[in-house]
Amino acid sequence: MRRLLLPTLLGLAALAILLNLGLWQLNRLAWKEGLIRQVEQNLTLDPVAAPGPNRWSAGAAPIGDYLRVRVTGAFLPGEAYYYNALTSPKGHYGGPGYFVHAPFRTDDGWIVMVNRGFVPDRFVAPDSRPGSAVPAGPVTLTGILRLGEAPNMTTPAPDLARRIWFARDPAAMASALGATGPTAPFVIDADAAFTPASGLPQAGETVVRFKNDHLGYALTWFGLAATLVGVYIAYAWSVLRRPDAKKPEA
């Protein structure tokens, strides 16, 4: 039986680790599902005033993503483009293309980049889509707040010559378009009602997507735990069946 002591202790330790990892993933699953429900609820609420510069500092309360907000002000000249393949469009257009972003100066003097909507790749040039110019004069805009993205090691660098970004970077977009002033660390995805009569850019195409693989990870950890138990039982059975394992110890 002494032969089983060390394998048993090691097996119990490994089993405890695997079970705890599985339970942790189940907790993460519950958290993620709660977050998804909260976002879905937020998208049905009336818009609130977009958070101004007093909310952008590190010590302020965090700004929530996917909030319905409103701002009043006027669009500034210029466009920047955020590459995206729209796989489940709500409107007519989808596939590879760009979200057209334009700088917007609020009545309070700060800048926010507005995602005016999606255009297919062939319509990225403004002169290829007549009637798509920004509204002139003051406008009250409503839409969904989306926090800026930090590029990772696999994110291509922006193409500044063509004003194309592969990560949502509102400050860099505004700077490239010459918009000066405090710039919000988020963009506002305009509601579908702000789609021009021409149909482009196609607004209201916020992509609500959460990676939620926690159930699969939990099943993997629990499966490994079950495999470990099976391997231990087979090993213990083989040890106990050995002739020398039945001999009384001197």
From TrEMBL:
Q: Which UniProt keywords apply?
A: Cell membrane, Membrane, Transmembrane, Transmembrane helix
Which compartments does it reside in?
Answer: Cell membrane; Membrane
Q: Which residues cross the membrane?
A: 215-237
Keyword Transmembrane helix part of the UniProt annotation = yes
Pfam families recorded for this chain? SURF1
Q: Which domain of life is it from?
A: Bacteria
Membrane topology, as annotated: Multi-pass membrane protein
What family is this? Belongs to the SURF1 family.
Name-wise, this protein is SURF1-like protein
